[in-house]
Specification:
The protein is of the alpha/beta class. About 45% of the residues lie in helices and about 15% in strands. The protein is built from 12 helices and 13 strands. Helix 6 runs parallel beside helix 7 and helix 10 runs parallel beside helix 12. The chain is globular, with a radius of gyration of 21 Å. The structure holds pyridoxal-5'-phosphate.
Length: about 400
């Protein structure tokens, strides 16, 4: 009988087998897998092979074969991964490229309109919205989410803003927030936004590969992603998604002339892409599926995250920043040492005293925190070491 993703998530032997597919340098235990993901050894080898091949064949291969056939197949495979139509996706260099193009080229704003920004968005997205305000004469309304957040509080904060600011037209929404890992109730927020005539640009940077979602079902028309976090692709790949019915609401990007205006690829910032990385994508998708896709990866990562958050949540001097509601959680979570002034000081001690590599994050209303992100290669033993380290450091 096939085992469910939840049963498999607890199977250390199974995940040891997965971990053996990756090369890991000796050194600190990496609990900062949120920055970017590792490629498997076979993906890294395929990437190296593609670098050498493109370097040898140069533009002859790229102009004769890659642009004509391979690039089209890769895009088709990406659309299949998302279960979206092919004309709804276009590859970019990263999530930031995709999100900034959507923000800068959204053409439904009039001077005096309002755009909404919450404290939980990614800093680059915040800057892009402030840029809009300066260049397009719109006002940025800034809101702060309640902390600790709940499923209902996240929705209520938005609906209150929607009612209070009737000129709101556009807002970014981060699916998985990068500081504490909070997973937004996207579908409910999108429904409320739609009822108020507000468009959402979804920042899916951390969602792809660890959350199983369907953009049409979520009610999302515009979104930006990368492929180098939880999918395991080489660095420098991302894509944008536009519901084909809404393509005319995003102008072609500045400088773009390669594609007709009714082609989504005209919405991407033009550049010579990382062709060897793109050529590696079919193997990346195949291996992602072979590992059980987002369902299996998400279940394993959630198990690791839940193990440490539940063990340290009640320790005096520790605040876990994500709630217990499984709808709001993923791989990433964050904690704060409430009796210690400097979170960076605690990050340093985690590294020096326990060989655990973590990172601080700040910029949200809830203040500075320490982000903990297990990866696909993290064994339960490393999580136990984290629990022990946090328990000891909290009391010192
Ligand atoms: C929430 C969020 N959005 C956007 C980005 C930007 O992604 P990229 O590096 O692909 O531009 C990141 C990167 O970590 C992120 O965490």
């Amino acid at each position: 009988m096939p085992r469910t993703a939840t049963t498999l998530a607890h199977d250390e032997v199974h995940w040891q087998g997965i971990a053996r597919q990756f090369d890991i340098a000796p050194g600190p235990i990496n609990l900062e897998n949120g920055y970017f993901g590792r490629m498997t050894r076979t993906v890294a080898e395929a990437y190296q092979h593609n670098i050498l091949w493109v370097n040898r064949s140069n533009s002859v291969h790229v102009r004769q074969r890659f642009e004509q056939t391979e690039a089209l197949q890769i895009r088709r495979q990406l659309a299949e991964l998302l279960d979206a139509p092919e004309n709804a996706v276009a590859l970019t260099r990263c999530a930031s490229d995709a999100l900034q193009s959507l923000i800068r080229n959204y053409n439904r704003l009039q001077p005096g309109d309002q755009v909404l920004l919450s404290d939980l968005e990614y800093d680059t997205v915040k800057s892009a919205l402030r840029w809009l305000a300066r260049h397009r004469g719109v006002d940025v309304i800034e809101i702060e989410h309640q902390h600790p957040a709940s499923f209902d509080s996240l929705i209520d904060t938005y609906t209150q803003a929607f009612e209070r600011y009737p000129r709101l037209k556009l807002m970014p929404l981060t699916y998985v927030t990068h500081r504490s890992g909070l997973v937004m109730p996207v579908q409910a927020i999108a429904a409320a936004a739609q009822a108020h005539g507000i468009d959402i640009i979804l920042d899916g940077a951390h969602a792809l590969g660890q959350i199983d979602f369907d953009l049409a079902n979520l009610g999302i028309a515009f979104a930006g992603f990368n492929l180098h976090k939880w999918i395991g692709a080489p660095l420098s790949l991302g894509f944008l998604y536009i519901d084909p019915q809404r393509l005319s609401d995003i102008d072609p990007d500045m400088g773009e002339f390669h594609f007709p205006a009714d082609d989504i690829r005209a919405r991407t910032p033009y550049s010579t892409p990382n062709i060897p990385a793109l050529m590696t994508l079919p193997q990346v998708f195949e291996e992602h599926r072979a590992m059980g896709g987002s369902v299996a990866k998400g279940a394993r990562l959630n198990y690791l995250r839940e193990t440490w958050t539940e063990a340290v949540r009640q320790i005096p001097g520790i605040e876990v920043l994500t709630p217990q509601d499984p709808r709001l959680c993923c791989a990433i979570s964050a904690l704060r040492f409430t009796r210690h002034q400097s979170q960076q000081g605690q990050v340093d001690r985690l590294l020096q005293d326990y060989n655990l590599f973590t990172v601080t994050r700040s910029g949200a209303g809830f203040g500075p925190c320490i982000r903990i992100t297990p990866g696909l290669v993290t064994p339960l033993e490393h999580i136990q070491r984290l629990i022990e380290a946090v328990s000891k450091l909290a009391g010192q």
